[in-house]
Every structure is written in C-alpha cells, then in structure tokens.
Design a protein that fits this description.
Order of helices and strands: HEEEEEEHHHEEEEEEEEEEEEEEE
Shape: flat
Radius of gyration: 44 Å
Strand order of the largest sheet: 2-11-14-13-12-15
Distance between the termini: 75 Å
Length: 414
Amino acid sequence: MQALKSLLSVLRRHLGKAILALVGVVLLAVFVPRLLNGPVVPVEQVVQRDFVQTVVASGRVETPHRVAVGVQMTGKVRQVLAEEGQQVKAGAPLLVLDQDELAATLRQSEEAVRQAALHVRQVHELQRPVAEQALKQAEANRDAARQNLTRQRDLFARHFVSQAALDEAQRAADVAEAQVNTARQQLGASSPTGSDTALAEAALAQANANAAIARARLQYATVRAPVDGMIIARQVEPGDTVQSGKELLTLSPTGETQLVVQIDEKNLQLLHQGQSALASADAYASQQFPARLVFINPAVDAQRGSVEMKLVVPTPPAYLKQDMTVSVDIEVARRSRAVLVSVDAIHDADSAAPWVLKVTHNRAHRQPVRLGLRSHGFCEVLQGLQADDLVVPLSEAIVTDGMRIRPQARRAAS
C-alpha cells in the first residue's frame, strides 16, 4: 500500500512537470511567431478604377426659383415701384435710389471729356503749326547768326573788330543753334507720335473711362428686374438707406425648378457654372435626378464660411416639392483607371508631403505619395503607390516605420 502511494506521488510530480512543459510549448508556439513576425494588423488595399470627384452639399428646392434683388452701391431709396404679388417684366424698374449726386458726377465727367477732346484738337490744330513756324524762325535766326559769325571772323582777322565782338557773334550763333534744337523737340512732341499728343490722348481716354464709370453708377441707381416673374417679398421702403449685399426684394420667376445649396468656401475653386450633378430629396433618398450648376453667389457667408449656389433641374420628378431638403453631388473632375487609396491611410494628407505606411515583405515602410483628386473617402495617388499595394490605416497607431507585421487585408475599396 505504501509502495502504491509512493508511485502515485511520483506520477503526480512528473505529470505536473509534463503539463508545465506542455503549457510552455504552447506559449512558445503562440508568442514566438508573434514576436518574430510581428502582430496581426488589418491593412487596406490600393485599388485602380474609374474615379469621379464630387463636392457634396445640401439645400432646399425652389419651385420656381427665387432671385434676391438688391443694390450694387450704398444709397437712399427714393422710390419703390414694386409691390408683393406684382408681376413684372424683365428690365422693369423695381426701385430707384437718390440720383442727384450721381447725375452731377456724370455731368462733371462728361465736361472733363469735352475739355480733354479740345486739348487733343489744340495739339493737332494749334501746337503743331506753331511749333513748325517756331522751327522755321529758329532756323532763320541760326542762319543769320552763322553769317554774322563768318563776317566777324573775317573782320577780326583784318583787325577791324575786337575779340569781344567776335565772342559775342559766337555766343549768338550758339544760342541760335540751341533754339533750333528746342524748336525741333517741340515740333516732335506735337507730332502724331509725340509726347504731347500721347499725353493729350491719354487724358482723353482717362476722362472717357471716368465718364463710363459715372454713367454706370447712375444706371445702378435704378434697380431693374433681371427676369420676368412675381415679387414675393419686399423688405425696403422709400427713405431707407440701403447697401450692397442686402436682399431688398425677392423675385420668383416662372420656369425651371432650382435647388439652392450651401457649399463650404474651401471648395469654391473646384466649382464653375455648367457642372453636372446628381441630386436626391431626403424623403426619397434612393431616387436620384440630374441637375446642373447655374449660379455661384459672389458673396461668402462670413459666419458660416459657405457660398450659396443654385442648380437647375431640367426634368424635375413629380414628387419634388417646394422647400424639400435635398442632397447634391456636384461632379468636379473625373479620372479613368485612377489609383485610389483610402484617406484613412494617409498621414499629413493636407500638408505638402503626405505619406503612407506601405507593407513590403511583411514590414511597414514609410512611403511618400503625391495626391490628386479626393472624394467620398478616397484619394487619387499620382505617385508612390500601385494597384494592389497594401497600406496600414491610421487607426493602427502602434505600427511604425520599419516594424514587422502580419498584414490582414481588408476588402478592397469599391
């Protein structure tokens, strides 16, 4: 019996060692490859496909669209010629600003034009003939002075006149020669290509430009309807002082359905009139319809950092209602067979030197990239990556340059 107990004790002792040894083997089998080969890291696959860059915006439906009418300069309202509900024709006056000062400025500018034109005539009709006669007179005086100098030299040689007389004759000849040169320069200045003519014509051009500006400002004093339509809102009365940028009247033209959206000002450089778009009403999100960008407001909303834009809908769906909320994707660029990477894998994406962690032979290496279009969470890669390359997403912050990893590819971008 004692022998049996001893045998069991020995078996337990050896069995415990065996279990510990087995656990050690298992741990080594699990962790040694991890230490040698690195951790398992989800990675993104670079893909190649046709790519469209879009700018996304949201807004509302206007059917028919509304036109905000305002003034182009600060002034006092003299008359308001339109009422709410009134139908107006394109070009009809809607409101008039005080014009007295503007009209006086125009008259002053037109008088300046008349005076500048007279100066041009004076150069051609008076200064040039006078300069020609002055040159002839100077040449005659020079010839006479030369002849007198010759006589004085002859008389001086025969001792009939003094040195002072000869010097005076020489001085008179030099003065006469200088007067000829001056007269020639004056004649050249008054020629069709001379400086006096150029200055007179430049002054006339400047006066005409000032008159054109004054005429335009006077025209701005009368605000006219840009299109046929109905006045649906009025926020101005006679006597009000108004300024540029403020909506005074709202005009609703008959015609096309429009979408009014707000675009972040940082995208302004990508947009221009005529670009195509796909829109959808939030109430019918799965149904898209085409639209076209037709208006970009020149003013930026300083508080929101956005710009108002309008898109026309050539064939509006029947369910589209006034003031419905819509989402719009405006196509700004298109690439065929573009190499694309997720923006979630790009470090310093907005800097001058973006980069990614590219997986090569189970190691992560820092790879500089040159980026192109961006849209819907993807960037076009112009240089630095190829299709089917693997990159480490930003979320895997533990991965560093040169680190060994075991990449686990996610589904390729689509």
